[in-house]
């Protein structure tokens, strides 16, 4: 058994959700690390797409920005941004959208826009970028973010992108036919929407994590599945590949 | 036909007080040299437009040049906040700024609609997204064929578009390669346009493949050769993105005084020739 950090098990667990058959729309940061780990381990054939227009890219280091040159240089093709959003995302060609967020609620709606009121924010966040349409136009959505009381909130300050609205049927009422968020991976646990209510439910705890610690890091009365799994620990190979990727990335970005 | 001007004359010609201006570039080919010239010319009351405002707009907004920002993601990519933009939005410093916020899909469609001379763009977007509540420009239309309700946004029709590209030839035809973003759409949607390039070549005809991204010179107002003009972003085939600069900008931009001192030293007291060493350094690295 090797030692690993809570961020490493989050990234490894998220990577395991992806397969060779996926066409994945990748967000920057934690999603990008997970998607490239999948590509460098069990899913070498996965198609990774970044919103800067790069299709089937295979970066050797993680990009700092969504449009680093590495993404274009290792891509099969690079298209314009209007083409990316119109033909490929809206065109229904993406199986999985992989998102992070600043805030998430019990129905996996996400906020990356503001903390506080929109017109007078206490914290102005970068904004939605591609997220509003990734959330509705990808076949399904995986979400990765650290579990904290600040991030897992009872009520979002702003709904940047819809998850399951206020419960089952809300997406359908908006005319959305895709599945929406099906997996939420944190540094503590795996959460999935309840099949009946669509409320996020803990289905697996990472090794050594207690129910109590998950509850304490969540801003609503969190539900647990009747039987909880234990998330398999990262393998030696997964950790080696991830750490090498991150070491290459730090060196490339001048953060040695 | 594109005119070949000095950078100062080209900026005076293309970007005027009160204009709506798109300095475009999707993390690649961001027109820093032209943006810095416009800062030196102390333009006022600009309506800045860009999908991904990052450090260049942080600098312009921190200098109080903008009355409005139309955007879909604003920050220092991979690093965090654009602190000058945040302070303008949160504190109204150095002046209050109006924001018009969209999603990427909507803004990309709005540029394409502008280039196509249409009044609005239509997309399957904003469903369940709260931006549709706070941005009155986001409306909807019912498809006359299927009855589906689709989102609409007004097309982007800037007074001016400013971009950086790799090459121009003696007719002013411009070649853009790599991550091409929305630059072609921005130029074609705008009334006036300025393109800075890494390099002048004799003739682009036959020098690329048949489907290369070329903007003909007769669709451009002014072309200026500014080697290194996209630094600290990058020019595919010329020099890489200086990620360390983006990381370092975080500390500079957090503090009003540090920001002002940096702008005075690196922008106000410099000219476009300050960008050339960045291009030369990359060439030297390549040769080594």
TrEMBL record, chain A:
Pfam families xref list: CoA_trans
GO molecular function: glutaconate CoA-transferase activity
Top-rank lineage group of the source organism: Bacteria
Enzyme class, UniProt record, top EC level: transferase
Xref: InterPro entries: CoA_trans_fam_I, NagB/RpiA_transferase-like
Keywords, ordered alphabetically: Transferase
Signal peptide as annotated in the record: none
Keyword Transferase: yes
EC numbers for this chain: 2.8.3.12
PANTHER family noted in UniProt: ACETATE COA-TRANSFERASE YDIF, CHOLESTEROL RING-CLEAVING HYDROLASE IPDB SUBUNIT
The name this protein goes by in its record: Glutaconate CoA-transferase subunit B
Provenance organism: Xanthobacter agilis
Automatic annotation (TrEMBL), chain B:
Statement: the UniProt record of this protein carries the keyword Transferase: yes
Domain of life: Bacteria
The keyword Transferase appears for this protein: yes
GO MF: glutaconate CoA-transferase activity
One protein family per Pfam: CoA_trans
Record keywords, A-Z: Transferase
Transmembrane portions of the chain: none
Entry's EC annotation: 2.8.3.12
InterPro entries, sorted: CoA_trans_fam_I (IPR004165), NagB/RpiA_transferase-like (IPR037171)
PANTHER family: ACETATE COA-TRANSFERASE YDIF, CHOLESTEROL RING-CLEAVING HYDROLASE IPDB SUBUNIT
Protein known as: Glutaconate CoA-transferase subunit A
């Amino acid at each position: 058994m090797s030692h690993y950090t809570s961020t490493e098990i989050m990234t490894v667990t998220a990577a395991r959700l992806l397969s060779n058959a996926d066409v994945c729309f990748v967000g920057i940061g934690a999603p990008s690390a997970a998607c490239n780990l999948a590509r460098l381990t069990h899913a070498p054939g996965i198609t990774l797409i970044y919103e800067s227009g790069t299709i089937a890219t295979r970066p050797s280091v993680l990009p700092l920005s969504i449009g680093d040159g590495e993404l274009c240089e290792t891509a099969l093709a690079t298209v314009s941004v209007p083409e990316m959003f119109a033909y490929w995302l809206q065109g229904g060609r993406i199986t999985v959208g992989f998102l992070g967020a600043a805030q998430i609620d019990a129905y996996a709606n996400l906020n990356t826009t503001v903390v506080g009121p929109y017109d007078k924010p206490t914290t102005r966040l970068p904004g939605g970028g591609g997220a509003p349409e990734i959330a509705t136009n990808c076949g399904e959505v995986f979400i990765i973010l650290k579990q904290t009381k600040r991030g897992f909130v009872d009520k979002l300050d702003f709904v940047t992108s819809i998850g399951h609205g206020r419960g089952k049927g809300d997406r359908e009422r908006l005319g959305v036919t895709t599945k929406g968020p099906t997996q939420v991976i944190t540094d503590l646990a795996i959460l999935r929407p309840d099949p009946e209510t669509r409320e996020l439910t803990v289905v697996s705890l990472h090794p050594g994590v207690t129910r109590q610690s998950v509850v304490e890091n969540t801003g609503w009365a969190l539900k647990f599945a009747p039987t909880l799994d234990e998330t398999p620990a990262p393998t030696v190979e997964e950790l080696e590949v991830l750490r090498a990727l991150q070491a290459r990335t730090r060196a490339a970005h001048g953060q040695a | 036909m594109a005119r070949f001007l000095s950078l100062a004359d080209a900026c005076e010609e293309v970007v005027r007080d009160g204009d709506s201006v798109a300095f475009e570039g999707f993390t690649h080919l961001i027109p820093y040299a032209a943006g810095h010239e416009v800062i030196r010319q102390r333009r006022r009351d600009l309506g800045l437009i860009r999908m991904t405002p990052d450090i260049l707009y942080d600098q312009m907004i921190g200098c109080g040049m903008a009355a409005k920002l139309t955007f879909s993601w604003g920050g220092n990519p991979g690093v965090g906040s654009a602190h000058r933009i945040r302070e303008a939005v949160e504190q109204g410093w150095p002046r209050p700024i109006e924001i018009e916020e969209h999603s990427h899909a909507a803004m990309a469609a709005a540029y394409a609609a502008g280039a196509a001379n249409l009044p609005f763009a239509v997309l399957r977007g904003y469903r369940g997204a709260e931006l549709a509540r706070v941005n009155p420009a986001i409306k909807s239309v019912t498809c006359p064929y299927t009855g589906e309700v689709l989102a609409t946004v007004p097309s982007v029709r800037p007074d001016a578009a400013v971009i950086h590209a790799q090459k121009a030839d003696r007719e002013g035809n411009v070649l853009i390669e790599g991550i091409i973003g929305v630059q072609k759409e921005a130029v074609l949607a705008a009334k006036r346009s300025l393109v800075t390039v890494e390099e002048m070549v004799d003739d682009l005809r036959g020098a690329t493949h048949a489907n290369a991204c070329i903007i003909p010179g007769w669709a451009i107002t002014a072309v200026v050769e500014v080697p290194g003009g996209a630094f600290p972003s990058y020019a595919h085939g010329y020099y890489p993105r200086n990620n360390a600069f983006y990381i370092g900008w975080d500390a500079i931009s957090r503090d009003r005084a540090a920001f002002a001192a940096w702008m005075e030293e690196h922008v106000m007291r410099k000219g476009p020739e300050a960008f050339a060493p960045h291009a030369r350094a990359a060439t030297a690295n390549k040769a080594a």
